[in-house]
Amino acid sequence: MDQLIREMVRQASAERAVIELFVATDRRDWHRVRRLLADTVALDLSTAGGPQGAIAADDVVDSWRSGLARLDAVHHQVGNLRTTIHGDDAHVACHGIVIHHRRTVTGRDTRTFVGTYDLGLLDSPRGWHVHTFRFQLRFTDGNPGLLD
Question: How far apart are CA 60 and CA 9, in angstroms?
């Protein structure tokens, strides 16, 4: 029973790190985002027109900071988390919706991205850190020129 409880606590803490990464991004708390990332992240945002490859965490943060700077708000909503843990590694898969918002003269103020996330995390004495971040876009809706 104690082992089962320890596993459930580790699973919940890995999921909490994933959710905190999205919340910190929405709040533009770049210091917190950086603390939640491993030093290098295998990033794949290619299906949504973003970068792909092994990228230094500082560069990921800088890219997200500059890419989201023109938006009035960004909102991530994730659910249906499926988590597996093997030793110090965790894999969290989930569905996600991302909404970008910026006031425009046309009134077409939002762009919505719907897809799935696959995240790999490593446990360390400082907590869980995301080392793999993949978004698989399913569809988009709204103003495609929102960031133009």
Answer: 29
